[in-house]
Amino acid sequence: MIKLLHNTLPTKAKIYKRIKNEKEQNKTNGTSNTFWQSKYPHIKNNLCTFCKKEPETAEHLMTCKHQYVKKQYDKALTAVQGYMADDYVWFLCKETSSPRRLKGFEPVIENKGIIPKKLLIHIAKARTTPKKFKEAILNIQIILINAHLKIWKRRNIILFNKYKERIT
């Protein structure tokens, strides 16, 4: 989650850029460096592991239209709505563009597990004690973090499965 928040996930877009730069420097300098190429032999392009249409960045993984990704965020939506007094949506999922969507929030930021301050009122309405309120906030963050984790794990299985004997 820290890597997601700070945009330091080793996405294909980042790795492919390094591989491409390494190849260009080899051409320019007449060298044969293969650090990035040998570490990531499975990275042949920068396209998303799921949809194969957009460059795979941390932001794209949160907005990808692939069925598996959307399913994880839809499950998160269902779980999160159990903690809300009102039926609001603030992170990216199948209902992001609905009239119930909270105005003035950037969904990519909220998908990182950050709960907007204005949303706390809607969570508090459904909680009777301060302890239950704190537990609800923690549980909502855990739900969103777990959705990301499932997507990241599935991505790694798809991407690395053929190469697991090479990975150290």
Written overview of the protein:
There is one protein chain. With 168 residues, the protein is mostly helical. It has one domain (2-163). Helix content is 53%, strand content 0%. It is built from eight helices and no strands. It has helices at 2-5, 12-29, 35-39, 58-63, 67-81, 107-110, 120-125, 130-160. α5 packs antiparallel against α8.
The number of helical segments is: 8
Global geometry: elongated
- Measured on Cα atoms, how large is the radius of gyration? 20 Å
Strand/helix succession: HHHHHHHH
Biggest β-sheet description: none
Low-confidence stretches: none
Mean pLDDT over the full residue set: 81
Number of structural units classed as domains: 1
How many angstroms separate the termini? 22 Å
Proportion in helices: 40-55%
- Approximately what portion of the residues adopt beta-strand conformation? under 5%
What structural class do you assign from the helix and strand content?
mainly alpha
Oligomer: single chain
| Number of DSSP-assigned strands | 0
Brief write-up:
This protein has helices spanning 2-5, 12-29, 35-39, 58-63, 67-81, 107-110, 120-125, 130-160. It is mostly helical and 168 residues long. The longest helix has 31 residues, at 130-160.
List keywords for this structure.
168 residues; 53% helix; mainly alpha; 0% strand
Write the layout of secondary structure elements.
Elements: H1 2-5, H2 12-29, H3 35-39, H4 58-63, H5 67-81, H6 107-110, H7 120-125, H8 130-160
Helix pairs in contact: 5-8
